[in-house]
Structure to design on (345 residues):
C-alpha cells in the first residue's frame, strides 16, 4: 500500500526535519507518507513539495498580492490558538471547500497528544477586529511545516489561503530556517495548484529519496495515470475474452491499519476482480515498481468493521491464497486469467 503512518510518542525538532526531508507530513498526532490518494473518488499521484527560502524572491505578481493585502489587513504572529472565534471561522470555511476534512480544529492538531508533540505557531489576518484568515505551522530545527490554512469565504477575492502560506514562508526566513514544507500538489491539475504560484519549489522523488527542481516523472506519466492506463488495457483484454470484470478500490486506502489487521489482503490500491465464485476469485493488479501485472487467486470475505460511536460497517475483503503469475502485457493477463478461472470452475 502506498500509504504509511507513524505515531511517535516523542518527536524532536530535528526528527521532524528528518521525516519532512523523506516525504512525510503531519496529520493529527501522527505523520504519514503517501504517493497515491483518493481525489474525487479517483486515484491521483501526490507530489510532495518544499521551498528553500534562502535567497528566494517572490515573482512580481506575488509581491503585488502581498503589498495589497498588507495595506488592507493586519497580520499577527504568535502561538497557535483554538477558540470559539477560530472554530466558527473553520466551520464557515468547511462549508465553502467541503471535501474530507475533520470537523473541528482540535482534531486538526490531534488533540492534546498532537499539541504536546509539535511546536505549532499561528499567523492570523484581521480586518479591524474581525478574524478573516489564519494558518498553523510546525517548527522543526531547520524547517517549517504548514499544517492548515483557513479563510473567511466572504474575503475569498483576496486569495487569503495563498496569502497566509506566503506569510508562513516569510516567517520561515525570519526565524532563520531553511525549508518551508507546504504539503503536496497533485500530478494532474487540482485546487492544490495555488501552491505552485510561490515558484522555486522542489519536488520529492520517492524512487531516489531526493528533491528535484521539477516533478520526478513526465506529464501524463505519473504512477496513478500509468496505473489507470494499464488497468484499462487489462480490462479491455479481459472483456474481449468474455470475462466479466469489476473494479475494486481497496478499503485500506480509507481504513487506517486495515492491512495490519488483515495481512493477507492485497496491498495494491486498485484491482480488477474476475469471476463470481463464492470460494475464489481472480484479482489483477499493476505493480508500478516492477513494471508488470500481478495475477492472484483470492478468497472473498465479508468483514464487519466496528468503531466506538459508529454503526457497524460490512466491507468486502479479499484474502490472497496464491500468486498465479506476473504477466507483462494485457493480453497475457487475459490468457492467464482464462486458464485460472477454468481451473476454479
Amino acid at each position: 500500500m502506498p500509504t504509511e503512518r507513524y505515531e511517535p510518542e516523542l518527536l524532536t525538532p530535528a526528527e521532524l526535519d528528518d521525516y519532512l526531508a523523506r516525504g512525510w507530513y503531519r496529520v493529527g498526532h501522527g505523520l504519514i507518507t503517501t504517493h497515491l490518494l483518493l481525489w474525487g473518488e479517483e486515484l491521483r499521484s501526490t507530489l510532495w513539495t518544499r521551498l528553500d527560502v534562502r535567497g528566494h524572491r517572490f515573482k512580481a505578481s506575488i509581491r503585488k498580492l502581498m503589498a495589497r493585502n498588507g495595506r488592507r489587513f493586519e497580520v499577527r504572529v504568535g502561538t497557535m490558538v483554538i477558540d470559539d472565534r477560530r472554530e466558527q471561522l473553520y466551520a464557515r470555511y468547511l462549508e465553502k471547500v467541503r471535501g474530507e476534512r475533520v470537523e473541528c480544529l482540535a482534531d486538526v492538531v490531534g488533540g492534546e497528544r498532537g499539541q504536546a508533540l509539535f511546536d505549532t505557531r499561528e499567523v492570523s489576518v484581521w480586518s479591524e477586529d474581525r478574524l478573516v484568515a489564519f494558518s498553523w505551522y510546525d517548527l522543526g530545527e531547520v524547517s517549517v511545516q504548514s499544517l492548515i490554512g483557513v479563510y473567511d469565504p466572504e474575503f475569498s477575492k483576496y486569495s487569503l489561503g495563498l496569502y497566509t502560506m506566503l506569510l508562513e514562508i516569510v516567517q520561515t526566513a525570519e526565524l532563520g530556517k531553511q525549508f518551508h514544507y507546504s504539503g503536496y500538489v497533485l500530478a494532474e491539475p487540482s485546487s492544490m495548484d495555488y501552491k505552485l504560484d510561490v515558484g522555486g519549489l522542489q519536488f520529492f522523488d520517492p524512487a531516489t529519496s531526493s528533491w528535484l527542481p521539477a516533478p520526478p516523472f513526465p506529464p501524463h506519466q505519473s504512477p496513478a495515470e500509468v496505473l489507470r492506463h494499464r488497468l484499462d488495457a487489462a480490462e479491455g483484454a479481459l472483456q474481449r475474452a468474455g470475462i466479466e470484470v469489476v473494479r475494486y478500490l481497496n478499503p485500506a486506502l480509507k481504513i487506517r491499519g486495515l492491512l495490519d489487521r488483515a495481512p493477507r489482503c492485497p496491498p495494491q490500491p486498485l484491482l480488477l476482480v474476475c469471476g463470481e465464485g463464492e470460494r475464489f476469485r481472480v484479482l489483477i493488479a499493476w505493480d508500478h515498481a516492477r513494471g508488470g501485472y500481478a495475477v492472484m487467486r483470492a478468497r472473498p470475505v465479508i468483514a464487519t468493521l466496528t468503531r466506538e460511536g459508529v454503526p457497524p460497517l460490512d466491507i468486502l475483503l479479499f484474502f490472497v491464497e496464491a500468486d498465479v503469475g506476473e504477466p507483462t502485457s494485457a493480453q497475457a493477463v487475459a490468457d492467464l486469467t482464462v486458464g485460472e478461472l477454468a481451473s476454479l470452475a
Notes: The CA atoms of residues 93 and 152 lie 6 Å apart. The first helix runs from residue 13 to 21. The radius of gyration is 23 Å.
